[in-house]
TrEMBL record:
The keyword Metal-binding applies. This is PPM-type phosphatase domain-containing protein. Keywords: Leucine-rich repeat, Metal-binding, Repeat. Residues 759-1007 form the PPM-type phosphatase domain. Residues 1-27, 1034-1127, 1242-1297 are annotated as: Disordered. InterPro entries: Leu-rich_rpt (IPR001611), Leu-rich_rpt_typical-subtyp (IPR003591), LRR_dom_sf (IPR032675), LRR_domain-containing (IPR050216), PH-like_dom_sf (IPR011993), PPM-type-like_dom_sf (IPR036457), PPM-type_phosphatase-like_dom (IPR001932), RA_PHLPP-like (IPR055071). It comes from Felis catus (Cat). Gene3D superfamilies: Pleckstrin-homology domain (PH domain)/Phosphotyrosine-binding domain (PTB), PPM-type phosphatase domain, Ribonuclease Inhibitor. The gene is PHLPP2.
Length: 1297
């Protein structure tokens, strides 16, 4: 901290640190001067340089206090920014402190504000810097005033918002605006002239040479450079020769001192001389006025001042632009003028004027003086009417009034006869009156997208013969009759609510009507000129007859309808997601006439009978038959499709790919995952093969040729469980860019015990793009194994931001979870902090983001886990609950969110024809793209859902996935697929088959939530051995156990392969967590039991846990192997013969049994024995709430069934092949009394009880426990043995329990 003069602390000053004396500043502002060193980035400050604890204490006293980082002017070039450093002043102030007060304290004339590393504007004296910061953070999404104050003190905020004491400008910006200096100059090409010292200025399109002393009043030489030359002078070092164009060209030689300076001038002058017309581009330079030297460039015809802060009444302000006598084009968009500069109407030479996004509410009548004006753009303002004087502009051929507040088409259009377009997108029109358009015979194109159109009115039957193109996208039309537009050639009406559409077919060429509710499309007469028809995502049951008769139609997209048959006399056909069972056969002699090249038939009901039909289309290049019912693909048929380039056969029942695929020499993509293929197809000999996906099949080996094709880039072999690749094979595949194979399972640690609740699969496909801009985050064991985090990030066209978010967002979430327990708070802050941490990369780039956090539910006692989902952009998450989709996220896009689209339109952003904000992105909320603030915000949508046993899976996908798949279709497609990887691949394949050519990513998370998924020690977790836990994998439909187990009463008769750890599970015991060798006394040491997230250790309860020990002796050898088992037994200590377990014996009598929860799934019909016993014990339920709760429980599912199938249904297959019952509620005393009684195996008990082999019951509970056990024994009848159980059992001994 710099030294300052001592003085009393004012109301805005914190207590002074003893080592840093204080100074008095005007207004009581506390200023801390620091020379903060940069760490590689201009915006990354050393955190040690922040203010100290005294300053922080002062800030905490009032949330209206804060600090402002004041940067010094930085004029360094881009190449030296990494090593540059400048003074940084830390000003402590309040939200009421004006900029004038800070300027007085700093000795500055003005303060400047820079947003997102881009434009810099001067603050007005009355503006309050700290309030600007707080308002900015609040608008981003921060709600807590304390958190806003904390964020405002973070120096990383400088990437988004920064204050300067002097106006900063990088050197390259200064060069483009104006270059000046005093150099030696010689006029003329000959050496007769002498060198003289002159002031040289390069500004606009001219080189200005003047006297050094009388530079403003003396004689000035102006040399126009457009069309001229700039050359190096070889005879003189660091010299340039500037020459004008024309027969009387003049030349000036300028000698510079350094090579770098010479190169700067040459670089800038070369741009000027290369122009054909005199154009000056000064956009995005934070200018408030035009440089004075620019007015000497009288030949300027086009001046671009877009994205500045131009003022009206300044020496070089807008009121002085009339001085450009030859100016024809002027761009003043995005200058926030507020009022129309009337003096612009005096520039009679103007032919093009752009005044978009300036906040105009009206246009002056003087605009009628611009008689030469041909193009006028006033988009993104607040206009409701146009002046009548605008009709005087008879040369006006283009008028843009989109994204204003018009409620009807202005009448002035009737006078502007040179106009051929009505461009009024994003206004407030609710009714389209075709009669008004009939009176405008000069109008051919009508753009009314993104209005509020609900009806179309026709005043009379008179037809309109002039309109050829109409765009009605993104409105609210239910019926549309444009039969009167007999010259209509192209119609866009996507994303309305159309049920019926009627058009004239005389001139119709293209029709786009996807994403409606169409059941009928009427076109009369038959459109003989129709070439393209898009009717996807409607309710059509048949292709219209007129479409089948359109002879010139080449492109037909009818995907996602209800069709049963389609025509195939096309070049492109997409009929995916219909109900096709067969294909029309080609007539005799039509094979050579067929022009079909692209055929998409994914997700239909096609069988092997459709394959011969394909032979009739030998010119097929792309064929998608995924997710049908194909069992074979005859080799003779594939042999005739020699032109194939892309083949997709995934999701069928194929066992082989025909060997004749080797004849498809042009094939570059083969996708055949999720089949039953056991033999690797002969594709490695194809010369152009690039992408091969054979994942999730039954491959066992691969026959590799001597040389692989050099074009092979991607080979996916994951999900082939029986495939083993030798080292030689892997070496052969080493040149492949992307090789995907299954990894061998590694030993896991104790932190992975919760992974049994969920497992995931991920699929990402680049499509037809060269790079993959989608990244995913998957952490199955998050925050020390008590939760999971999954995420999806889509950068659209950039891959940098998705990877940054993939690497950092989980860490940010972990930090925020530790600061707040409110899911809405910590998820929102995670997104906002990640937005800030993107730094300079997030200024121009952006990414959609989706984050799903599964954690123990502390709010709902009936739920074990809670799922919190947050998202911005177009990535979405869908939960499958009971077979039905439950959307958990919100799509922040212009097309799917009317509220967000209206917000963006109200803030006067320009939405281009491809539905993108300022032509950049279709998202209205995303991380990054800070330069598009306030249109694009990072505030996420957040939803929290308690997970139940009915929740089957979670699907995460990017924009491309959900654009082509509905929620219901996605859920139905994967809910019966056992492998999550195969499920994710199936979703991506469906999207590609429906026409997706972009990056597509899908993640499927299978959920196993419920008591049967518990992994804590009381419910079946194996004891850790010296090598840790064995890895387990959850399978939706587990196989039958190799060792069936039978049950008698409550306790099962365990086979000889049952391990000691499973007995511990039966009696609700816990074992040691130590992975190393433990002595016999380890069980006597008090320690907390290990619990899963479903049953966290309670912090308080009715009873205190009373540990006791029960010792089971066994015939286990020292190496941990049993005489009847060849595999090491997990959980058995290697150097001992006893296992110490803790038993919780505190139980109470059940009450209110009629209110006990009913098991709806995985329950079995109780046997008579169970009916006789009833449900008579209640135990303390270990749920997510950290307290002991007495709940009545039912005895359903407290017995293992005798059949292997039911054992799998109610048991968990462990790594050693044994089955452990997964009771919802376990009566510990009952299990203890019915413990297994066998002579041999792990449970052979000693004849004499050891002193430690007993329960320890507190005295105050002894009588109650004895009474319960007595009632239990008296009320239990002897069960009748079944036929299969009437075998003589060996002699049994009592165990230690």
């Amino acid at each position: 901290m710099g030294e300052v003069d001592p003085g009393p602390a004012g109301p805005l000053e914190p207590p002074e640190p003893p080592e840093a004396p204080a100074s008095r500043r005007p207004g009581g502002i506390r200023v801390l001067k620091r020379n903060m060193k940069r760490n590689g980035s201009r915006t990354c400050l050393n955190r040690r340089s922040r203010f100290g604890s005294r300053e922080r204490d002062w800030l905490r006293e009032d949330v209206k206090r804060g600090c402002v980082y004041l940067y010094g002017a930085d004029t360094t070039t881009a190449s030296t920014t990494a090593s540059a450093s400048s003074d940084l002043h830390l000003v402590l102030c309040t939200v009421e402190t004006p900029a004038s007060e800070i300027c007085a304290g700093e000795g500055r004339e003005s303060l400047y504000l820079q947003l997102h590393g881009d434009l810099v504007r001067r603050l007005e004296p009355t503006e309050r810097p700290l309030q600007i910061v707080y308002d900015y953070l609040a608008r981003l999404g921060f709600d807590d005033p304390v958190r806003i104050q904390e964020e405002a003190t973070d120096p990383d905020l400088g990437c988004m918002l920064r204050f300067y004491g002097e106006k900063p400008c990088q050197m390259d910006h200064l060069d483009r605006i104006l270059l000046s200096g005093i150099y030696n100059v010689r006029k003329g090409k000959t050496q007769l002239h002498k060198w003289a010292e002159r002031l040289v200025v390069l500004c606009g399109t001219c080189l200005i040479v003047s006297s050094v002393k009388d530079c403003q009043t003396g004689k000035m030489h102006i040399l126009p450079l457009v069309g001229g030359k700039v050359e190096e002078v070889k005879r003189r070092q660091h010299s340039l020769a500037f020459s004008s164009a024309g027969a009387q060209a003049q030349t000036y030689h300028v000698s510079f001192e350094t090579l770098a300076e010479c190169q700067r001038w040459q670089r800038q002058a070369s741009k000027v001389v290369s122009q054909r017309i005199s154009t000056v581009d000064l956009s995005c330079y934070s200018l408030e006025e035009v440089p004075e030297h620019l007015f000497y460039s009288q030949d300027i015809t086009y001046l671009n001042l877009r994205h500045n802060f131009m003022q009206l009444e300044r020496p070089g302000g807008l009121d002085t632009l009339y001085r450009f006598s030859q100016l024809k084009g002027l761009n003043l968009s995005h200058n926030k003028l507020g009022l129309f500069p009337v003096l612009l109407c005096e520039i009679s030479t103007l032919t093009e004027l752009n005044l978009s996004c300036n906040g105009f509410h009206d246009l002056p009548s003087q605009i009628g003086n611009l008689l030469n004006l041909q193009t006028l753009c006033v988009d993104g303002n607040f206009l409701t009417t146009l002046p009548e004087e605008l009709g005087n502009l008879q040369q006006l051929s283009s008028l843009g009034i989109s994204f204003n507040n018009f409620s009807h088409i202005p009448e002035v259009y009737e006078k502007l006869t040179m106009l051929d377009k009505v461009v009024m997108a994003g206004n407030h029109l609710e009714v389209l009156n075709l009669g008004v358009l009939n009176r405008m015979s000069h109008i051919k194109h009508v753009d009314l997208r993104m209005n509020h159109l609900k009806t179309v009115v026709t005043e009379n039957l008179e037809g309109n013969k002039y309109i050829t193109h109409m765009d009605l996208r993104d409105n609210q039309l239910a019926d549309l009759d444009l039969n009167s537009l007999c010259s209509l050639e192209q119609l866009h009406c996507e994303r309305n609510q159309l049920r019926e559409l009627t058009l004239s077919g005389f001139s119709l060429r293209t029709l786009y009507a996807s994403s409606n509710r169409l059941t009928a499309v009427n076109v009369y007469p038959v459109p003989s000129q129709l070439t393209s028809l898009e009717l996807s995502r409607n309710l059509l049951e048949c292709v219209p007859d007129w479409a089948c008769e359109a002879k010139k139609m080449e492109i037909l997209d009818v995907s996602c309808n209800l069709l049963t048959e389609v025509p195939m006399s096309l070049r492109y056909l997409n009929a995916s997601a219909n109900s096709l069972e067969s294909l029309p056969s080609a007539g005799t002699g039509e094979e050579s006439l067929s022009a079909l090249q692209l055929l998409y038939l994914t997700n239909n009901l096609l069988t092997d009978q459709c394959v011969p039909v394909l032979v009739g289309h030998p010119h097929l290049r792309i064929l998608h038959l995924a997710n049908n019912q194909l069992q074979t693909f005859p080799a003779s048929k594939l042999n005739k499709l020699e032109q194939l380039e892309e083949l997709n056969l995934s999701g069928n029942k194929l066992k082989t790919i025909p060997t004749t695929i080797a004849n498809c020499r042009r094939l570059h993509t083969l996708v055949a995952h999720s089949n039953n293929i056991s033999i690797f197809p002969e594709i490695l000999q194809l010369p152009q093969i690039q992408f091969v996906d054979l994942s999730c099949n039954d491959l066992t080996e691969i026959l590799i040729p001597e040389a692989l094709p050099a074009t092979l880039q991607d080979l996916d072999l994951t999900g082939n469980t029986n495939l083993v690749l030798e080292h030689k094979t892997l070496d052969t595949f080493s040149h492949i860019t992307t090789l995907k194979i299954d990894q061998k399972p590694l030993p896991t640690t104790d932190s992975t015990v919760t992974s049994t609740f969920w497992s995931h699969g991920l699929a990402e496909m680049a499509g037809q793009r060269n790079k993959l801009c989608v990244s995913a985050l998957a952490v199955d064991n998050f925050a020390e194994g008590v939760g999971a985090v999954y995420g999806m990030f889509d950068g659209d066209r950039n891959e940098e931001l998705p990877r940054l978010l993939q690497c950092t967002m989980a860490d940010v979430l972990l930090e925020e979870v530790q600061q707040s327990t409110n899911d809405t708070v910590f998820m929102a802050n995670t997104f906002l902090v990640s937005h800030r941490k993107l730094g300079m990369a997030g200024q121009k780039l952006g990414s959609s983001a989706l984050l799903c956090y599964i954690r123990p539910d502390t709010a709902d006692p009936t739920s074990s886990f809670s799922l919190t989902v947050a998202n911005v952009g177009t990535c979405q998450a869908v939960l499958c609950r009971g077979g039905k989709p439950v959307p958990l996220s919100k799509v922040f896009s212009l097309e799917q969110d009317p509220e967000e689209a209206q917000r963006v339109k109200d803030q006067k952003a320009i939405i281009t024809e491809d539905n993108k904000v300022n032509g950049v992105t279709c998202c209205t909320r995303m991380l990054g793209c800070t330069y598009l603030y306030p249109w694009i915000l990072p505030k996420p949508h957040i939803s929290a859902t308690p997970l139940t046993i009915q929740d089957e899976l979670l699907i995460l996908g990017n924009k491309a996935l959900w654009e082509h798949l509905s929620y219901t279709e996605a859920v139905n497609a994967v809910r019966h697929v056992q492998d999550p990887l195969a499920a994710a691949k199936k979703l991506c394949t469906l999207a590609q088959s429906y026409g997706c050519q972009d990056n597509v990513g899908a993640m499927v998370v299978y959920l196993n939530i419920g008591e049967e998924g518990c992994t804590c020690e009381m419910n079946g977790l194996t004891l850790p051995g010296p090598v840790g836990f064995a890895s387990t994998t959850i399978i939706k439909d587990p196989p039958k156990p190799t060792t069936p187990s039978s049950s008698s009463g409550i306790a099962s008769e365990f086979g000889s392969e049952m391990s000691t750890s499973e007995v511990s599970s039966e009696v609700g015991s816990t074992a040691s967590d130590e992975h190393n060798t433990v002595g016999l006394d380890a069980g006597l040491l008090p320690r907390p039991e290990r619990r899963c997230s479903l049953h966290p250790t309670p912090t308080s309860g009715v009873f205190q846990r009373q540990p006791s020990c029960a010792t089971f002796s066994s015939n286990q050898s020292d190496n941990g192997l049993d005489s009847d088992d060849d595999q090491p037994v997990e959980g058995v200590i290697t150097n001992g013969s006893k296992v110490e377990v803790e038993v919780d014996i505190h139980c109470c009598r059940g009450r209110d049994l009629e209110n006990s929860p009913t098991l709806t799934e995985n329950s079995h019909t109780p046997c008579p024995e169970e009916h006789a016993r009833g449900s008579f014990f209640g135990i303390r339920r270990q749920n997510s709430v950290n307290s002991g709760i007495l709940l009545p429980v039912s005895k359903d599912k407290m017995e293992l069934q005798k059949s292997p199938s039911t054992s799998c249904l109610y048991g968990k297959k462990l790594s050693n092949g044994s089955i452990v019952p997964l009771e919802d509620s376990l009566n510990l005393i009952e299990v203890a009394t019915e413990a297994p009684k066998k002579k041999t195996g792990y449970f052979a008990a000693p004849t004499q009880l050891e002193p430690e082999d007993q329960f320890v019951v507190p005295r105050d509970l002894e009588e109650e426990v004895k009474e319960q056990m007595k009632q239990h024994q008296e009320g239990r009848p002897e069960p009748e043995p079944s036929e299969e159980d009437r075998t003589e059992l060996p002699e049994e001994f009592d165990t230690a329990l």
